[in-house]
Amino acid sequence: MRRYIKPAVFLICLIPLAILVCDAFHQALGANPVEKITHRTGDWSLRFLLITLAVTPLRKLFGWKSLMRYRRMLGLFAFFYVCLHFATYLVFDHFFDIGEMAKDIAKRPYITVGFTAFLLLIPLAVTSTGKMMKRLGRHWQRLHQLVYVSAVCGILHYLWLVKADLLQPLIYAVILLLLFGIRVWYQRKPLDTAFLEYSN
Amino acid sequence: MIIKRPDSIKASEITDETNYQNRREFLSTVSRSTLALAAGASFPVLLGSRRTDAAPALGNIQKSRYALDEEKTPIEDITRYNNFYEFSTDKEGPALLARKFKTDPWTLRIEGEVNKPATYQLEDFIKPYTLEERVYRLRCVEAWSMVIPWVGFAFADVLKKVEPTSRAKFVEFTTLYDPRQMPGQQRRVLEWPYVEGLRIDEAAHPLTILAVGLYGKLLPNQNGAPLRLVVPWKYGFKNIKSIVRIRFTEKQPGTTWNIAGPQEYGFYANVNPTVDHPRWSQARERRIGDFFKRETLMFNGYADEVAGLYSGMDLRKYY
């Protein structure tokens, strides 16, 4: 039974893409399909990033250790959706005009910060294998803390592009803060215990 | 013609369902003959039943010399992809949330620096004007665009009628404020009600119209029914929807997007590929229906007609 869970999670993570492809075939992406593809892939990038970041806090809060087995896959799916998001921008907004795109990235803060979020995920995806984990040893953990920077950049990217209604990106921001808060809380705890032991 | 209030409708007067289901055929048959003659008078009756997929046809629409020779955006796209924050900040929200929006009766106030201030029932206001079809480009500040066959009348004709005084330098337009009907107004995403404005010479320009329809039919609710402004050389947000008040002023009115983001949305908001939005480029746009972007034209392609309005003005400063 247990060996079916991982493939099942894998398939579940593909559902947003499946819906997107299905909608595209049925011409159900509305009047501006490119915009819709951009928004959906962007949204799912952030959602998977937040889901990945929720694994450790959930384990610590509720002791759900088995979740750890899916963390890498979830993180890679975040990267996968970012790649689709970026590809949409590259093809439909700039049609491979790298020069124009570079100018765009340099000039527009929301794109600069979004592109940064994407770049930061590349080394994390590359070093996500077991081999790399072993090779990097204790540095691996440090390196992968970049995922927080990437998430902050991703949410800023969203916040800076909306015209007036900040609700959706703010929801993401609150979730990220919450997850970060839980981590900080648990990191503080050992210190407290140490202090107690010392005073005894 | 009398518009019946709901409480004055007798059961015997209610259209039976088969007739209702066939109303489009009925309208198209009738409109070709009698309705065309009585177009002005029939307008208020038609205002009564409004659904996007079954909007009644408007009779007696004159052709206009302002009929762009470009492929028109399909009506499905024009009516399901809307920026109408009074209903929703989501593009597809207005089409669903505006279905039950009541546009009849509708009162319009003309006030301020005019010789003939008045409060009109919408049908009385519209009656004297000749409806024309104007096929215009619409360029949104978000860098997408459409080609829309509006039905409306020149705002210049309204000016002749209401007679602005010599002190009238600007025109201010206000949208209905009714949070019960317009759920988007329950959130302070923008300052409500929505206000837009034009300089009086912009308002008097022959391209400026008040629209009451599109594709030969009554304006769907999500497109700003029953009365909206269309100024084709400006970004879409200038084209204020569901207007209840037109005020003539000496001072430049405060306009909604300008108040929300003064660095980003100017009072003039003329389409200008050389002046970027601070956060994104305005050089190109995606025409709805296209996958790739195209170049944006100066004044949205209406430079020959309107550039003169801004001669000597620094368009980087007055964006």
**What kind of sheet is the major sheet of chain A?**
none
How many structural units, i.e. domains of chain A? Answer: 1
How would you sum up the global shape of chain B? globular
Number of DSSP strand runs of chain A: 0
Class of the domain at 47-141 and 148-262 in chain B in CATH? Answer: Alpha Beta
Q: What kind of sheet is the major sheet of chain B?
A: 7 strands, mixed
User: What is the overall number of helices of chain B?
Assistant: 10
Give the topology string of chain A: H per helix, E per strand: HHHHHHHHH
Rg value of chain A = 19 Å
Binned, the helix content of chain A reads: over 70%
Average pLDDT for all residues of chain A: 92
How is this structure best described in words?
The complex is a heterodimer of chains A (200) and B (319). Chain A is globular. Chain A has 200 residues and is mainly alpha-helical. Chain A has helices at residues 2-25, 33-62, 68-93, 98-107, 109-126, 130-136, 138-144, 146-161, 167-199. Helix content of chain A is 86%, strand content 0%. Chain A has nine helices and no strands. In chain A, helix 2 (33-62) packs parallel to helix 9 (167-199) and helix 5 runs antiparallel to helix 8. With 319 residues, chain B is an alpha+beta fold. Chain B has a domain at 47-141 and 148-262: Alpha-Beta Complex (Sulfite Oxidase, Chain A, domain 2). Chain B has helices at 17-21, 23-37, 39-48, 75-80, 93-97, 122-126, 155-162, 200-204, 256-260, 303-306, and strands at residues 107-112, 118-121, 132-139, 144-154, 170-175, 195-199, 209-214, 217-218, 228-230, 243-249, 284-287, 294-295. In chain B, the strands form two sheets. In chain B, strands 3, 4, 7, 8, 9, 11 and 12 form a seven-stranded mixed β-sheet that branches. The interface between A and B is medium-sized, with 18 and 24 residues.
